[in-house]
Amino acid sequence: MSPSSPRVSSKEQESRYWFARHSKSIVFLIIMLAIIGIYEAFTLPISVFPTTNFPRIIIGVDNGVMPIDQMEVTITRPIENAVNSVPGLEDVRSITSRGSAEIDLFFSWRVNMITTLQLVDAAVGRIQSTLPPTAQIETHRLDFASFPIIGYSLTSDTIPQTQLWEMATYEIKPRLNRLDGVATVLIQGGQVPEFQVTPDSARMLRAHVGLQDILDAVNRTNLIDSPGLLTRNHQLYLGLVTAQVRTPEQIGDIVIKTVNDAPVRIRDIGTVAPSVAPVYTVVTANGKPAVLLSVNRQHDSNTVAVADEVHQEIENLRSSLPAGVDLRVFYDQSDIVRESIRSVRDAIIIGLLLAGFIIWLFLRDWGTAVMTGLVIPVAIFVTFIAMKILGQTFNLM
User: Fold this and answer.
1) What's the average model confidence in pLDDT over 164-186?
2) pTM for the model
3) C-alpha distances in Å from residue 265, one per residue of 204, 221, 250, 260
4) CB atoms near residue 245 (< 10 Å)
5) Cα(195)–Cα(249) distance, rounded to whole angstroms?
């Protein structure tokens, strides 16, 4: 009895006929999806961690050296009571220390954290007038973009720490802040320059001057103001009057008050000398006192692209730095991302070669092996399209 020939059902015949009829359209669709996937692969944000909106908002308060008990009564508790009305709030935790407080707000995972942050800012703003005027309050939501992606250290053996701090604050930081994708640049370390007025109690008593009079005179004099608009040749010019003081001598010339038609100046009741702000944290790099610049990226930016921009800008400004200043990288998150991308790329290539070789080894069919080598990359490219639609990123996770 001869073996029977394989029987093909009508449904299989119809499917084969349909694929044969639309084969060109299917191939064109696959090619288009691959091209779109390749394009999306170059536009997807790259970072170490995925984009995650943690349901947590941190409120930080800095108020000098105010005692803990006073901080808790006048600042921490009023803020806690104010934010209790924000929808979705589940837990409030606070840490109060001398001159500072941190209030952690934990929300439900279902809330929109961008809107919630605005509601928290509004709640804090409503009680701002009741808090001490010296209190500095910052609110921000916690996500992976809150952590720096690049860190630079600024050191020198010849330039004082005050000048390094000014260089980082007024020269380097503004140039980095202008770059696309950069959110904030945090400066740590160094010495903040300031002037110290040391009044003499006997002179103050003879001149009938109090400490508040000195503070008011400095605040009233050291300012930049506009007297208004000036008209000339049918054009309006904004007039500016500056009375900023930059040297101890200029501070000493500030008039506190007039007694018997004679001006009483700051130098008449005390001395003025250069000084630095109190240093609570010592920062070093390579065994030397240093100023650190930490760069944070924006929430939806590309870590590698931002790092490349920052490195290029740093190289552009190196020529303008004084001799003896050493500016170098001490942390770069983009190196981790690049290494992970290279390892994934190598794994995909090796996997394709091994899969094609194994198929050829067993089937002895080059066509099937080549098709396998084409199907896997196309599937990966289509995955990039899905990642773009779902708002995902390239990351270590």
Assistant:
1) 91
2) 0.71
3) 11, 12, 10, 14
4) 17
5) 11
